[in-house]
Design goal:
globular, five-stranded mixed sheet, 21 strands, alpha+beta, 22% strand
Length: 470
């Protein structure tokens, strides 16, 4: 919120004054009201293996994170560029494989990747769009630069919290909204539905049938699945609600079978079709891949997109953007060490107390080492893991992540944050909703923002630059 001189940055000037004038009891009251609202709404997040998982609420911070329109425009064009290149990369590795022949990306990183699906080779997907919904994790370490920390191309989550956070903030702080012109996020569901319908098979009717496929109520993100289906006005289905006949997917309804054109799936590849992937899956739809290959149904996101959010391939994104678009990347990657390379591995092992080490296919903050906050025993354990399987890990420097003011029981305190904007790709191009999910580390000094690790969320406001308001 403040610059090096201790004065509020321009974008935060009004909010800073409001916080300075707000009595502590007002902030405490609004925090309590926010907790009550989220409890009534029923937003929960399950953590597998915990007895009280079904009852956990994600902590919500009532102080919004502010980004100016000029900052947002820079971020937006970089996000569009990155997702375009990601889709071109996926179309290439499942088709002509030109980037592999050119030696830009090592073939082993693709073919040995657990998310590479040979079943998708030479399968044309509508409009060559593989990643219809992307969640790109962004961090900033100074006033000017945004860095991409991670790409989420399989089944990115969190958009329901972006929408609910905004709704709660509008109820609790109308006076703050009156003092700022905040870009709306409420039209996300409309934009998502438009994008999904636009990639329906060419044989579909003018009004394609879209459904959201969920693993069911025991999934950690089930609240989001039901929330989004409701917002989109589409059916929330489980695998048992669908069946395939003559390479066409149908939904069981009280009026008889109804053909399905687009499936927004929140189910991992492995469980989609027991005839193609895991035969023990009871969550998927037998024959779904046959219908998919026949071109009678669109899956969003496409099967096999997990290759693009692998953390080892992430290190090649600047080269991938240059190869397909002929452009320098507009958003920087966080400097990353590929532990699969012997010289790099030696460096990482020697500097473990200073680095963050992650599994290349890890998520949710699990399976990682934050060197500066780790014990000697944890560092020694990770050194053994790295030595045994170096290709499974990448390492990054511990960044001085930006902090945002956060309402804690003892008052306003700085907490580290990251940011996940959501990028939608349809037949008519790429769109980014002006906002996203800001995740906040609720523990003082912590860099871990993941909800599964105790992190919270806050509303993100894209506001007009100072001097542009009439």
């Amino acid at each position: 919120m403040t610059g090096p001189d201790g004065e509020p940055r321009e974008v935060y000037a009004r909010l800073s004054r409001w916080l300075a004038e707000a009595p502590p009891e007002l902030l405490a009251s609004r925090r309590a009201q926010a907790d009550l609202l989220f409890r009534r709404i029923g937003i929960t997040f399950a953590v597998y293996g915990e007895k009280d998982a079904a009852e956990r609420l994600i902590p919500f911070d009532i102080v919004p994170r502010l980004i100016s329109q000029s900052e947002w425009r820079r971020l937006e064009v970089g996000l569009v560029q990155r997702v375009k290149a990601m889709n071109m990369f996926l179309a290439d590795i499942y088709g002509p494989r030109e980037i592999l022949r050119a030696g830009i990306v090592p073939s082993a990183l693709v073919y040995q990747n657990p998310y590479f699906r040979p079943e998708m080779v030479n399968v044309r997907v509508p409009f060559d769009t593989y990643v219809h919904i992307a969640g790109i994790d962004i961090v900033r370490i100074d006033a000017d630069d945004f860095y991409v920390l991670e790409d989420n191309a399989r089944t990115p989550s969190g958009v329901s919290y972006m929408l609910e956070n905004r709704e709660v903030m509008m109820r609790l702080f109308p006076e703050l909204f009156a003092a700022h012109r905040v870009a709306p996020v409420e039209n996300y569901a409309d934009l998502l539905l438009q994008s999904l319908r636009s990639v329906a098979p060419r044989t579909a009717d003018a009004d394609p049938v879209v459904v959201l496929l969920t693993p069911g109520q025991y999934n950690s993100a089930y609240y989001e699945h039901s929330f989004l289906a409701d917002k989109l006005g589409i059916e929330l289905v489980e695998g048992r609600d669908l069946f395939v006949d003559d390479d066409v997917v149908y939904m069981r309804t009280t009026e008889g079978p109804k053909q399905v054109d687009v499936i927004y799936r929140r189910l991992d590849d492995d469980f989609l079709d027991p005839l193609a992937f895991r035969p023990d899956s009871t969550l998927g739809v037998p024959g779904l891949m046959s219908a998919y290959r026949a071109g009678t149904v669109t899956l969003a996101n496409a099967v096999g997109t997990g290759v693009a959010d692998d953390k080892a391939l992430y290190t090649y994104m600047p080269e991938i953007i240059q190869f397909y678009l002929g452009e320098a990347p507009l958003l920087k990657n966080v400097p990353t060490y590929r532990c699969r390379e012997p010289e790099t591995l030696r460096y990482v092992l020697e500097h473990l107390p200073e680095l963050v080490v992650k599994e290349v296919n890890g998520s949710g903050g699990y399976g990682m080492l934050v060197g500066p906050h780790a014990t000697r025993a944890e560092i020694e354990l990770f050194a053994k893991k790295l030595t045994l399987d170096p290709a499974n890990f990448i390492a990054q420097p511990t960044l001085a992540l930006s902090t945002c003011p956060t309402a804690m029981p003892g008052g306003i305190s700085p907490r580290h944050v990251d940011f996940r904007p959501f990028v939608l790709t349809g037949s008519k191009g790429v769109r980014v909703v002006p906002g996203g999910l800001t995740r906040v580390a609720m523990q003082d000094g912590s860099l871990v923002v993941n909800s599964s690790q105790g992190g919270g969320t806050k509303d993100t406001w894209i506001i007009e630059d100072a001097g542009t308001r009439s």
